[in-house]
Amino acid sequence: MRRVLVTGMSGLIGAAVRRRLGGRWALRALNRRPVEGVETHQADIGDLDAIVPAFREVDAVVHLAANVANVEGTPGWEAVLRDNVVGTYHVFEAARRASVKRVVYASSGATVSRIERDPPYAALAAGRYDEAVEWPMLTHESPMRPNGLYGCSKIWGEALARHFADTTDMSMICLRIGHVSAEDRPVKPREFSVWCSRRDIAQAVERSLAAPDRVRFDVFFITSENKWSYRDIAHARAVLGYVPEDRAEDHRALRAAAEGEASGYRALRAAAEGEASGYEEAP
């Protein structure tokens, strides 16, 4: 059984990856705090010497740990620099020193999501679908449009992965992950475009780990099967065999059905109260 080191396993995506890989891969966590039931090396990715022992006898690394505080461009450069820039370098370098064969890097749709300020993508993000008859899909070869310093840091991570793929024997796979949430369903209008279910991202991670050795470097958008998406997942289908299990629109239909049931219940209740009121007032 191959051993996989997962950074940031205590996070939302880390927990989903653990559920998917557990029992099929030997898991080890690199985390600031213990992960119950998993061999854990406690250290901060900002400290290279402290994390190096976690990489011993590891076949592959899934690098999820990151600081997302700066997604909207708010202050937080120091944290982004420490965790996403320096920390990512430390993870890649520690993997190189340990002769790790493959690193799966959690990049982000934030590498391009600033495009949502421009039409027709702004309409998609706002749920104004009548204004978006057609739109060019963004692929892994499209120009970058980073959202905040967080998005910039993820572009750095992809460039660094390219460097390590070119200068070492490691395979480097970058996943531009869509919106993953605790609710595990789209809630806001934008999320019907960029949502990614937890089981879909976990599937993408496993397929990246199992990809052929010939995949030396590549970048993939990963979302669920979303009708209003502008991020192309055909490349992930073709190279990784990624097939989303979830669709954003299914949740819209479920929500509409639930709202319809609630509305029907309110109408029945109002009718019943009206009948009761009429009965009480009858002579």
Would you write up a description of this structure?
This protein has a 7-stranded parallel β-sheet with strand order 3-2-1-4-5-6-7, with helices on both faces. With 283 residues, it is of the alpha/beta class. Helix 1 (12-21) links the parallel strand 1 (3-7) and strand 2. It has helices at residues 12-21, 48-51, 77-97, 121-126, 148-167, 191-194, 198-209, 234-240, 248-281, and strands at 3-7, 26-31, 39-42, 60-63, 102-108, 171-177, 217-222. It contains 9 helices and 7 strands, in the order E-H-E-E-H-E-H-E-H-H-E-H-H-E-H-H. The termini are far apart. It has 2 domains: 3-246, Rossmann fold; 249-283.
Strand and helix map with partners:
Layout: E1 3-7, H1 12-21, E2 26-31, E3 39-42, H2 48-51, E4 60-63, H3 77-97, E5 102-108, H4 121-126, H5 148-167, E6 171-177, H6 191-194, H7 198-209, E7 217-222, H8 234-240, H9 248-281
Parallel strand pairs: 1-2, 1-4, 2-3, 4-5, 5-6, 6-7
